[in-house]
Design goal:
- The protein is of the alpha+beta class.
- It has two domains: 4-70 and 170-183, Alpha-Beta Plaits (2-Layer Sandwich); 75-168, Alpha-L RNA-binding motif (Alpha-Beta Plaits, 2-Layer Sandwich), CATH 3.30.70.
- Helix content is 13%, strand content 28%.
- The chain has three helices and eleven strands; from the N terminus they run βββαβαββββαβββ.
- The chain has helices at 61-68, 88-96, 148-155, and strands at residues 9-14, 42-44, 52-58, 76-83, 99-100, 103-104, 109-112, 134-141, 160-168, 171-172, 181-183.
- Strands 1, 2, 3, 4, 7, 8, 9, 10 and 11 form a nine-stranded mixed sheet that branches. Strands 5-6 form a two-stranded antiparallel sheet.
- β2 (42-44) and β3 (52-58) form a beta hairpin.
């Protein structure tokens, strides 16, 4: 077993179109091209190929468990560009939970942003339709179901156009650009709520 002094913790800003893993049999872009990373680290949780933002990479199984076990309900915060401007009713539905694949999502913190956040451009621009306005919301979840944010916004008729995870617990993207990473000290484990 490794001592904690040998554990590695890396914050990585995953760009659009990159898998949250180091290999792919289909030859898609992976984390490997952004290293070199220590040989035994892996992603704690996932971001979809078409999502961007914060990944924690580590070789610490305890931290991996604490950041991925649903019992800990640690917060994950996303900036989400959606089609059309959500009504207060749609935002409240997201806050209260919506039915996704037959099961209601847990309550979430949701806010409509008054202006577009300052973000790096995406490698593949978001499709724009002149007749359909877009809006940005910030959403904080305490569960991690597959493609959850996208399914939630679709459930209230505001499909996601762009999705960026900006925080995992108290870890954030601050100071990183897409494709950049930095080593950090052992993060504080999320607390059970």
């Amino acid at each position: 077993m490794k001592s904690s002094s040998q554990h590695q913790y890396i914050l990585f800003y995953k760009p659009y179109g990159v898998l949250s893993q180091f290999t792919d049999k289909h030859k898609r872009r992976t984390l490997k091209e952004f290293g070199p990373f220590p040989p035994d680290v892996y992603s704690v949780g996932r971001l979809d190929l078409d999502s961007e933002g914060l990944l924690l990479l580590t070789n610490d199984n305890e931290i991996n468990h604490q950041f991925t076990d649903p019992a800990f309900e640690h917060p994950r915060t996303y900036l989400v560009q959606v089609e059309r401007i959500p009504s207060e009713d749609a935002l409240q539905q997201l806050r209260d939970g919506v039915i996704v694949k037959g099961k209601k999502t847990k309550p979430a913190d949701v806010a409509l942003l008054s202006e577009e956040p300052k973000l790096p451009p995406r490698s593949v621009p978001v499709r724009e339709r002149l007749s359909v306005p877009t809006a940005w919301i910030e959403i904080t979840l305490r569960e991690g179901r597959n493609r959850q944010v996208r399914r939630m916004t679709a459930a209230v008729n505001h499909p996601t156009l762009r999705l960026i995870r900006i925080k995992i617990g108290n870890l954030s993207l601050d100071g990183l650009q897409p494709g950049e990473w930095r080593a950090i000290e052992k993060p504080a484990a999320p607390l059970c709520t």
